[in-house]
Amino acid sequence: MACAANPALEGSPTNPSSTPELVTTEVATLRPSLLSSATPDYGDAAEPSPEPLQIVTPTPFVPKAILELTQPETPTILSYQVLASYPHDTSAFTQGLLWHDDKIYESTGLFGESELRVVNLLTGSATQEYPADPAYFGEGLALVDNRLIWLTWQAETATVHDVSTLEQTGTFTYTGEGWGLCYDGTRLVMSDGSNRLTFRDANTFEVLGSVQVTHSDGTAVERLNELECVGGLVWANVWLTDVIVVANPDTGTVVAEVNMEGLIAPHPSIENGNNVLNGIAYRPDTGTFLITGKRWPTLFEVRFN
Predict the structure, then answer these.
(1) What is the pTM for the complete model shown?
(2) Which of the chain's ends, N or C, has fewer CB atoms near its CB within 10 Å?
(3) pLDDT number for residue 231
(4) 258: closest CA among 99, 39, 88, 37?
């Protein structure tokens, strides 16, 4: 979503005590820690050069912290470790973010400015761009096979694009607002700015069901925005905050959350209240996440513990 002011953010996280172990086949007991610092902790290793840190993993894996998020009585408080930072286009009003074929696919918003773009991670520059109809306010983005599905805010239309060329190949219609979108490998998951997630058929966009996202005490988690489907769970930006919640789509219960406050300083929302945290892309090759915000100068690669 796009338009509202974000109150000033206060405070900063503390450093993690150690780098978490990652596993591919075994699940150990998760020991939740408090919010960690955005300052990388490299232990005994030498501090890296200003060049962006490239993380190479031979096989895809899911971090231990994600594997163990199921249905706790109280949500796990995740911490984060910044592994690298990259340039991000400050003109990009980021709405959707995903990682595919070693590239970032990003959708941006605002009337007359919305674009679908392919972005080089290391430079932050767009290598391909597809402008939306000026009447459309672009929103969330998901990849299904070789199709990109791009939501609009209030036009009740989703456009379908070829992942290689970005050319539009079709449309879907829906009722209500479009905010975030992700694909869990079977169905699409869509947010509309409320606490409801709607499940849709990936080929017809037909509604398959829905669930309301709530905290463990039953209170609603409103303003769900950009989504990312990872490990059978739905990760969601909470609009106008630096919080990301992780919901079990079967029950709607929040099983984990992380406060990204302190990730960037000064916070871009101080200058413009609309420049809030928004954009979650999972890298299955490294088990890391790419995180940014609307008009932010930086995109961060982080690991959640």
Answers:
(1) 0.77
(2) C
(3) 86
(4) 37
